[in-house]
Amino acid sequence: MKVLVVDDDPNIVEAVNICFALRWPDAELVDAPDGTSALEKFEIEDPDVVILDMGLPDTSGLEVCRTIRETSQVPILILTARGGELNKVQGLEMGADDYITKPFSHLELLARIKAVLRRASAPTPGGEGESFKKGDFEFDFVTRKVTLAGEDVQLTKTEYGMLFHLTKSYPRVVQHKTLLAKVWGREYIDEIDYLKVHVQRIRLKFAAVDAEFDPIESERGVGYRLSVSD
């Protein structure tokens, strides 16, 4: 496995190297101190996971994340300052898979990396059962396609997973913790921000097809349900 570590703080880079040396010695680490070299090394090295600091000397980590997401779905773990709630949400909105606040423990970092790799390699749900169709909305479980008025809605693996479980549970509400456990894993059941960000991303993708269509209804303090009708 190859890991690209993007951070201009040599202490952080050293901490990550020690972490892997102790717990994951077969991993190959490549580091970059700024956004420009990070994108260059990303193209050359083709890493399996990216650990990306939000505060870089030449550009923001958000911009690096956005650029990577234009061509790749490689797992991205962002590093944020403690209490950097805005950076965390912005990173998730740009397509990051997870985050960790500095300072972090070796065990916490490895647990997060293993979680994003597990999700990336997990099979896409579907493959059986009839298509679900209500009005212009259709979810084909065999082809794993989601369409609105016959037009494909391109979803990331995480967005697809969320919509899959909401569709399978229709018309029931899926509780926040249940949805987090099914899509991210049981260690994420308190990460409500993950749901909020991805629900918004899903809504925007459907709105690009039909500005009036909103496929997800929020049950405040409880969860989400698929909102479609004939």
Brief descriptors of the model:
Arc Repressor Mutant, subunit A; 41% helix; 8 helices; four-stranded antiparallel beta sheet; 230 residues; 2 domains; alpha/beta; Rossmann fold
Structural class: alpha/beta
Q: What overall geometry do the principal axes of the alpha carbons give?
A: elongated
Estimated radius of gyration: 19 Å
N-to-C series of helices and strands: EHEHEHEHEHEEEEHEHHEE
Helicity level: 40-55%
CATH superfamily of the largest domain: Response regulator
Strand arrangement, largest sheet?
Answer: 2-1-3-4-5
CATH topology of the largest domain: Rossmann fold
Folded structure, characterized:
This protein is an alpha/beta fold. It folds into two domains: 2-121, Rossmann fold (3-Layer(aba) Sandwich), CATH 3.40.50; 132-226, Orthogonal Bundle (Arc Repressor Mutant, subunit A). It is built from eight helices and twelve strands. It has helices at residues 10-23, 35-45, 61-69, 85-93, 106-121, 157-168, 176-183, 192-207; strands at residues 2-6, 28-32, 49-53, 76-81, 98-102, 132-134, 137-140, 145-148, 151-152, 174-175, 216-219, 223-226. The strands form three sheets. A five-stranded parallel β-sheet has the order 2-1-3-4-5, with helices on both faces. Strands 6-7-8-9 form a four-stranded antiparallel β-sheet, covered by helices on one side. A three-stranded antiparallel β-sheet has the order 10-12-11. Helix 1 crosses helix 5 (106-121) and helix 2 packs parallel to helix 3 (61-69).
